[in-house]
Amino acid sequence: MAHGKAFALLFNITEQRENDQERTVAPFTHSLPNRQNYLGYTLSILSCYKAPMVSQNLSSFSSRVLTVLTFCSVLPSLGCTTTVSNLVENYLPINGEACDPFGGAPRESIEELLVEPAQPEGEPRQTGTFVLEDGGAALAARGWLTEMAKKTVDIQYFIFSSDNVGLIAADFLLRAAQRGVKVRIIVDDLLVDGDADFLTALDAHPNLTIKVYNPNINIGKSLPRRLYNVAKDFRGVNQRMHNKTFTVDGKAVITGGRNVADEYFDFNQDYNFRDRDVLLVGGTVEAVQASFEQYWKHPLTVPIKPVAKPKSDANVEAVWEGLHQYACVEENFWTSARQHIGMFPTIYRSWVQKEELQWISDVQFVSDPPGKNKEKGMWGGGKSTTTLINLVKSAKKSVVIQTPYLVTSELGQTLFAEAEKRGISVTILTNSLAATDNLMAFHGYTRNREDLLKSGVEIYEFRPDAAIRRSIMTSVLAEEVETFPVFGLHAKTLVVDDDLLVIATFNLDPRSANLNTECLAIIRSKKLAEGVLKRIAEELKPENSWHTTLESNPDSEAGWFKRFLLFWHGILPKSIL
Description:
Layout: E1 14-16, E2 22-24, H1 40-44, H2 61-74, H3 84-90, H4 110-113, E3 127-132, H5 135-148, E4 152-157, H6 164-178, E5 182-188, H7 196-203, E6 208-213, H8 223-232, H9 234-238, E7 245-248, E8 252-256, E9 271-274, E10 277-281, H10 285-297, E11 301-303, H11 304-308, H12 316-328, H13 335-342, H14 344-353, E12 358-360, E13 363-367, H15 383-393, E14 398-402, H16 410-421, E15 425-431, H17 439-454, E16 458-462, H18 469-472, H19 476-480, E17 486-489, E18 493-496, E19 500-504, H20 510-514, E20 519-524, H21 526-539, E21 545-548, H22 560-569
Parallel strand pairs: 4-5, 5-6, 9-17, 14-15, 15-16
Antiparallel strand pairs: 1-2, 3-10, 3-12, 4-7, 6-11, 7-8, 8-10, 13-20, 14-18, 16-21, 18-19, 19-20
Helix pairs in contact: 2-8, 3-12, 5-6, 6-12, 17-22
């Protein structure tokens, strides 16, 4: 999970900083809010250290009260504050029509571009598969598909931020709805702290519907109500939807690690993520669509309007127009950025020509059901967890993993130790202290880092100044600036035996294993697996990562203040980590 701007499907114009001073967002230049205070981990890395993956002290009254108070006091500071009037007053009117989101680039239909090859009768339907390594292409694919959609756009995200990328994404979705496309959005409740009037104004469009997953802790809830809900149903407030899927016209899907925010697409100048998605065309798209429908119809997924409790009857058409005009301002959405999105067909055809986009018969999509599991405690596993465990157990020679957070339970440690005993090499790349955006998760990792190393696991820790960022960051902003931001790992990837590739939303921690719903794309392709392994091998080089051993680790490379904060996280009892 990334824990940047409190995600609000509200796309506001101002953001609340930790010192409670508002400032107008300067697109492409604003900094990332403090990520260290995300207390979802306080609530959930509860189980990190021994099966059944939960501290026996969790039930103690003092631990629970401390957790409740800590979580609920931090949650409001993660959010963004704005009003509908900000959007309407600041961006109305500029011109009578919304400007061209493709910057004048020629258009063609999805049907013309995403052509499936002829297949022998009776053979399984193949899936066009391309690994989206760089943020520029990942953003262009989403933007172009949304603008060219004819029937449906179905998306579910854990974070849909209120920054510039989030605002532009909101405009694309609203434009699609105004063309007659049915747009359905599922967002998780935990980090929503947006303006209810804006949320309901978007939802007011007859073709655009917003639902909130498990709205028991944040939106529309007062602080006393939050305290009550956490105390009453500790497990319930921890059950979050971490799935990330983007489906257009039932023809194409993007899934993987990226949420919707500047830092996932190389547009933040202070901190960006090295992440990974996969584009799927045809074939397995049906399974992704079926999973979305399951979430959409589930009782945990609730319409936004009764939850948000809007305070006024906003002029929704003025709000819509204000959003369009925001996207027309050059400093908000550069012409070069529009043109890059408009040129996606050219980019796509180059993938096809170079055979980088592969048509594969064996592509599976695995998703946890809403609610994850039916256990009453903080454990229980899930469909995605069991699938990943079985894949590691099936390895014949090697397991290579990228994960931003590496918090292992006794179960995980045993899994990797047994693999090493069978002669399987296990290599894991995770964030270093200097690169991580989550100190609580990192402290959980340090408690069992030595155990993993003693079992034979090779561990590398990502550098914040990784040289590879110069080739991976491909947004139009990255091309313009001379300096590069801090780089943190966010890709969730597993490669087994050089021929099976998993691109997932799943972090290697107890929250993903037991509480968050997650999804996985499992791709049996030697070519694509080897391509990702080549990337990872590059990232393991000294200029990109530090090799951690029993004799040394790179913790000292972090600044003194970050090391100080990590120390204080160590004082927290395991029951609230």
